[in-house]
Design brief:
Distance between the termini: 40 Å
Number of helices: 23
Strand content: 25-35%
Helix content: 40-55%
Shape: globular
Largest sheet: 9 strands, mixed
CATH superfamily of the largest domain: Bira Bifunctional Protein, Domain 2
Oligomer: single chain
Radius of gyration: 31 Å
Number of domains: 5
Strand order of the largest sheet: 3-10-11-21-16-15-14-12-13
CATH architecture of the largest domain: 2-Layer Sandwich
Structural class: alpha+beta
CATH class of the largest domain: Alpha Beta
CATH topology of the largest domain: BirA Bifunctional Protein, domain 2
Number of strands: 29
Length: 690
């Protein structure tokens, strides 16, 4: 049964319990026979048991036990978090000074996982797609971020505790309220649950006034003090600084890496032989002064982004390699399903593009490549979905946007954004910098074309806009044909039109005497245009945290008296690929272990050698908790055992072959199943001594 049906059944069962309770009381008041009263009580108890069963099913569905998240989300999260912090995957920064919210340090295994994820990202995208990688400064002059719109618009709505002044993100308070009611309030009617789900689906569309109204309607207060909250107001998330000792050049710590690519477009285009399409990529730190950081690595103030800007002709967004991903089938959540309260469903990517659900082939291609990247890392495909932005979420210039969302104990988390940003960014920087960021298509022969000519009337514009005249003129001249034709139609119909000027970050009213828009025949030798941009943007920390949760499980020790933690990292991201253990402390075994260690080092395989006297089972358990996929146990001077982490299966391999076998499996040249079928299988009680 789905959630709505379960809630209706629960309400019906509660009504039946109430009615039966009244019947029992009536029988007792009428002094009915003991057998009649006992029979009525038995019926009441039976109804209560049925209600409890429905409650358990509902809790499992909306936020308790479920596939991949045992016991409860909170318990599971705490178990994973304890293991990660104890094994030093990551810890709060400046811990001895009580830390700072939203800042974390990666320890040795965490650094290794992050490094492996980024190395695989480079291989999967930069190398396979022949991208141009750049590395730009974190400190960005204000003028750049003014042109991009970040200075004026990079805000979240904030509320304050009316007594203590503590700040909270308004939408997070509303989101938490809705989620908690849906997950824990079993008395919610199906209608009220549908209302809360609709609020969650349209949360990004709420204005400050609407958000404030919802907070008041639901009686939401400050979480710690229960004090009242202020009305929501915008707060800019960028860290401001000044460049140079004079303090006269304002700047910001970059909130994303993309702007460094956009401002270098002209040089990158030249480097690429003045040819489109091409993609530029960048991995680097970004900074956002989050209002109320929480959820560990999911919402932090400094984080690693890996971003791609794929520049393409706006008139041809086909992709030559789209057929390689067209047959992929995975969970997709188009906006129509979201608005109608439905769930994500598996769709074939080729069908989604051909039907127009996904705007174009290039956007679809990157959605497919992101799916392959995430699942190759170890993300569970059944807890990965691609959600399309609602119309109200998208910027006015965007053609289409999808988020790769991964389900973890915190719910569905946006980890990758894949957006068709049209030509907005390059146009905005062209207008502000006065440098043409355009591409050219040369014709084999001159063409006589009918072209839309835009002629601003500077005198009238100057009288109206005065000091802003230049910005308005340049914006009018930069309009594409579609925008110009819309304005022409509006001017002819109404005599005026609202026009958004990027540099001014606002709309202005253009009257019919301020600009002439007409078609003229001209001879062209080339086509000059501003490229569109397809942008996949990866939050590396979020992906890594979700990978931690998806990879974590427990299994009983041999004695059955404790649960042992295991991270099932695929070899490609495992922090350590292999461990080497002498079975016992014996000089000849230790000599062999050192020899194998040297071979692994020469092969470039990260490994750890452990010659402590601890039992082999406990050493296995320690490395399983670090996610090490393979262990080599030295128990002779001729051959050794290789153990696979999850199955605990072992094979016997000659000492001289051990390093090469591990290398081949780690690099994906062969599978463990192939190793298992090739080498003699080995059964040992020591494998189960954990």
């Amino acid at each position: 049964m789905d959630e709505s049906s379960l809630r209706r059944s629960l309400a019906d069962k509660q009504a039946a319990i109430d009615a039966q309770g009244n019947a029992v009381r009536a029988l007792k008041a009428a002094k009915a026979s003991k057998s009649d009263v006992d029979s009525a009580i038995d019926s009441l108890n039976s109804l209560k048991l049925e209600k409890a069963s429905i409650e358990r099913n509902l809790l499992a569905l909306v936020g308790g036990a479920g596939d991949g998240v045992p016991v409860s989300r909170e318990t599971f999260r705490q178990t994973v978090g304890n293991a990660l912090e104890r094994r030093l995957f990551y810890i709060p920064s400046f811990k001895i000074y009580r830390g700072v919210a939203g800042l974390y340090d990666y320890g040795p295994p965490g650094c290794a996982v992050k490094s492996n994820v980024l190395a695989f990202w480079r291989q999967h995208f930069v190398l396979e797609e022949n991208m141009l990688e750049v590395d730009c400064p974190c400190v960005t002059p204000e003028v750049v971020l003014k042109a991009s719109g970040h200075v004026d618009k990079f805000t979240d709505l904030m509320v304050k505790d009316m007594k203590t002044g503590t700040c909270y993100r308004a939408d997070h308070l509303l989101k938490d309220f809705c989620n908690e009611k849906l997950q824990k309030d079993l008395t919610l009617t199906s209608e009220k649950a549908a209302e809360l789900k609709h609020v969650l689906a349209t949360l990004d569309d709420l204005s400050a006034d609407q958000l404030g109204a919802k907070i008041k309607e639901y009686g939401i207060v400050a979480p710690e003090t229960k004090n009242g909250l202020s009305d929501p107001y915008p707060f800019n998330l960028m860290f401001q600084t000044s460049i140079g000792p004079s303090g006269l050049l304002p700047g910001y710590m970059r909130p994303e890496t993309a702007q460094g690519i956009f401002v270098n477009f002209k040089d990158l285009y030249y480097y690429n032989g003045n040819k489109l399409p091409f993609a530029a990529a960048q991995i680097g730190q970004a900074f956002r002064n989050e209002i109320s950081p929480r959820q560990g690595l999911l919402r932090v103030r400094e984080f690693t982004l890996a971003e791609i800007e794929h520049f393409v002709d706006p008139e041809d967004k086909s992709h030559p390699k789209f057929n390689e991903v067209a047959n992929l089938e995975f969970l997709m959540f188009p906006r129509e399903q979201q608005m109608s309260g439905q769930y994500a469903q598996k769709l074939r990517l080729g069908d989604a593009v051909s039907k127009g659900t996904v705007n174009n082939e290039t956007l679809g291609y990157f959605i497919g490549r992101v799916y392959l990247f995430l699942t190759s890392l170890g993300i569970d495909a059944d807890r990965l979905r691609f959600r399309q932005h609602l119309a109200n979420e998208m910027a006015h210039y965007a053609a289409d946007c999808w988020d790769a969302e991964i389900e973890c104990s915190y719910g569905w988390i946006e980890c990758v954004g894949i957006a068709d940003r049209s030509a907005y960014d390059l146009k905005a920087h062209s207008e502000k910098s006065k440098v043409d960021l355009v591409a050219h298509e040369k014709f084999s022969e001159p063409r006589e074309v009918e072209k839309l000519v835009i002629t601003p009337h500077k005198k009238e514009l100057g009288m109206t806009f005065k000091g802003n005249q230049k910005a308005v003129v340049e914006s009018l001249e930069a309009m594409n044909e579609e925008e110009a034709l819309k304005m022409k139609a509006a001017l002819e119909a109404k005599g005026e039109d609202e026009f958004y000027v990027c540099v001014l970050a606002k709309s202005v009213t253009i009257k019919d005497n301020m600009v002439k828009i007409a078609k003229e025949k001209i001879v062209e030798h080339q086509r000059v245009f501003t490229p569109s941009v397809i942008e996949p943007s990866f939050g590396i920390g979020r992906i890594i945290y979700c990978l931690f949760e998806h990879s974590f499980y427990t299994r009983p020790s041999k004695a059955g008296d404790e649960q042992l933690n295991v991270f099932r990292f695929p070899p490609v991201v495992a922090p350590i690929k292999c461990t080497v253990f002498p079975l016992i402390q014996k000089p000849e075994y230790e000599s062999v272990a050192r020899l194998i260690s040297k071979s692994l080092t020469a092969a470039g395989v990260s490994h750890k050698i452990d010659m402590t006297g601890t039992t082999i089972g406990k050493r296995y358990a320690r490395t399983d908790e670090l996610g090490v996929p393979f262990a080599i146990t030295v128990d002779s001077q001729v051959d050794v055992t290789i153990r696979e982490r999850d199955s605990k299966d072992q094979v016997r391999v000659n000492i001289k072959e051990a390093a090469s076998v591990i290398k081949e499996v780690v690099d994906g040249q062969r599978t463990w199943a192939d190793v298992w079928s090739t080498f003699p299988q080995h059964a040992s009680a020591s494998a189960d001594e954990e």
